[in-house]
Amino acid sequence: MLGFMVALTLLGSADTQPPAAPGPGVSETLARERTAAIRDLKYELSFTIPADRQAAVRGRSIARFSLDKPQPVVFDFAQPAERLTQVRASGRVVAVTVRDGHIVIPAEMTKTGANEIEFEFLAGDDALNRNDEFLYTLFVPARARLTFPCFDQPDLKARYRLTLITPDGWQAVANGAEVARKTSSGTVETTFQETAPLPTYLFAFVAGKFSVETAQRNGRTLRFFHRETDAAKVARNREALFDLHAKALEWLEDYTDIKYPWGKFDFVLIPSFQFGGMEHAGAILYNAASLMLDESATQNQLLERASVIAHETAHMWFGDLVTMRWFNDVWMKEVFANFMAAKIVNPSFPDVNHELRFLLAHYPAAYQVDRTAGTNAIRQELGNLDEAGQMYGPIIYQKAPIVMRQLELIVGERRFRNGLREYLKRYAYGNATWLDLVRIIDDRTREDIAVWSRAWVEDRGRPEFTASVRMGERGRLESIAIIQHDPMKRGLVWPQRLRVTLGYDGSFKDLPVYVTGAEAVIKDAKGLPAPRFILLAGGGLGYGLFVLDEGSRDYLLQHIADIPDALTRGAAWVTLWDNLQASRVGASALFEAALRALPREDDEQNAQQVLAYVTRVFWRFLPPDERVARAPALEAALRSGLERGRTQSEKAAWFNAYRDVVLTPDGVAWLTRVWKREQTIPGLRLAEPDEIAMAMELAVREAPGWDEILRTQIERTQNPDRKARLAFVAPALSADPAVRERAFARFQFVENRRREPWVLDSLQYLNHPLREEHAQRFIKPALDLLREVQQTGDIFFPTRWMNSTLSGHRSPEAAKTVREFLASNPQFPQRLTWTILTSADELFRVAGL
Ligand SMILES: [Zn+2]
Predict the structure, then answer these.
(1) Can 213 be counted among the known catalytic residues?
(2) Which of 20, 132, 264, 617 is the most buried (most CB within 10 A)?
(3) Residue of 312, 447, 601, 635 with catalytic role
(4) Are the C-beta atoms of residues 132 and 173 closer than 8 Å to each other?
């Protein structure tokens, strides 16, 4: 409401005054103002694209809309002023300029009713992804303003009429179907049909040298564009790509009860695309490599390809037809796309344990943030689209899908689907917020979904659960009560369905229970024999810290491998790890339990997770002298796993764990022989990236001849990107502390931080546990740089910068440095303070500070 009032005040006074400066970016206030004022928006756009990628793309844009009264109108155009060559309002030239990425049309140049503002400009290349033979737009979240003047916000949907003038021989694709094509003197002019209402971030076009494949499926023409030159590869993938899309379309039309909303259906395979895919309405873009598979493709690659296709296709309804009003609800469209994708794809892959896959892909990563003081809510405040990058992280990618699965369980599959149908129909071609959906679902169920949403979606953190057992006669259970509380002391309750596993030697029993309040009693437990363990996270379903009682903890540490079901074992491991973080399981005990269980773990997904836990315990939780004492047993266990591994991917998991933890002189010598190609490992092919990783691990251990190893590895690396990366990281691996200090000092300058993965590798090795004492000096300057890192880097960089800096530390001094930094910077931006608190969480726990 506040934003709206401010908007009216600004508009009211602006008739006579010079228009108020809207400030940089796209603020929520500006967006609200425009949504209130602008109606019936249409763009007529044309772009002239030269073959030479250095020559500017020229553009012309006409925005047509209606106003209730004359008022200043703010367009977004994030380019230098000289790139705007002319502006006309209703045919009259307007003298305006570009400031802070905006063009303000003064009130006297606007009128009540229909308005027409015309721009001539040079498009910025920033969002055009120009290559020698093709270009493609990628405007999410608010990058259309880098290309043309527009209202760059998700809730000002517009109809687009587009014309592209491209070199002869190029293909052109856009959201609308092609309606006309004219060729003259070396250029082609393609006109596209006017689109249905779309937000700027979903408007897109692609032009360039592409091959086109066409097919019919269920009475619909599907096309895809690609640049693959291997004809056999195209032939091998072609039918599958059409079939997967056709199947997803059919499934979604059925589930939503709404026909595909965008007329024609095209998709484009882009080499080295930034994401897996992007859901531009009627013209999806994909990363070519994940769709065009080789003959050797694994089951996992096939599953991932089917998933990304189903995900992007689901967006045609979830995100495209109904769009979030503001980017703080971007999580909704992502969650729904994933949710639908799982329903569409999983039944076609019966050999995969999908529930275990869901558990391990979501819970550990979500907990790693949600257990800390720096966690955030799924729904966050977003004041300006400039900061939209801060919305993304494990809470929306990993926690939100868990939360949505809970919602469907609580509401029921059918009612949930009907609620979604109503939501899509009511807001079709428009926008909605999360709360709009909550109201619809709330009306369909006895549950109080608004209360549910407050704990799960609008607030941060997670519940803590304990079980209280009462015994009856003859060793039988009288009752089991489940108690939840809010560790952040706000009194929140997280209603959820749990499956409680009662474990016996070699068997188990699952009891469903719906916890709606602070306490719930499992009625079906009465009269059952006393279990050896109680696992509240049974079936990998519940979300929270599930505190293990002593008996269950001790039993699981000794006998986890005896549990006959892979999903229950996975859930038990995740729970044990969480209890380690809560200081309820000792590090040495967990380490020993893992070494006992690993030889018997025949599920590859579980084995990989346990290997990751062992590695973390080894470096972070064990003090250096205990590490040395336990290294021989760990190395022996990993080597025997390596021999036992049945497939290349199993063997690779064991080998990578060995490479990362090896510490004994004999072990290091063996790894050196593997690196020197004197020693081969049957059944395991090692490629260039593996050899580079070995060389780096040998160097940080100062293995005999480490500097020669690094030099040789740089020389023998064939791939030019990898070669340059290793040369960049090498100083961070040096045994000479002065060289390492200079390696760190480089990062003071933004130009040395451009290659973010290279910087992160360097930070990781500078702060390696074996170099911990010396690396103490890097923590404070890394914290001092964090703000600048956020301002100049990509969206995931600040978190990764902190993680790479702190993950090798366990000392009280390191923890104190972080605490002191936070105490002496009380004005530090909250989001970044949370980033630090989350990154430092494990350090604080281990150091006991
Ligand atoms: Zn998506």
Answers:
(1) no
(2) 617
(3) 312
(4) no
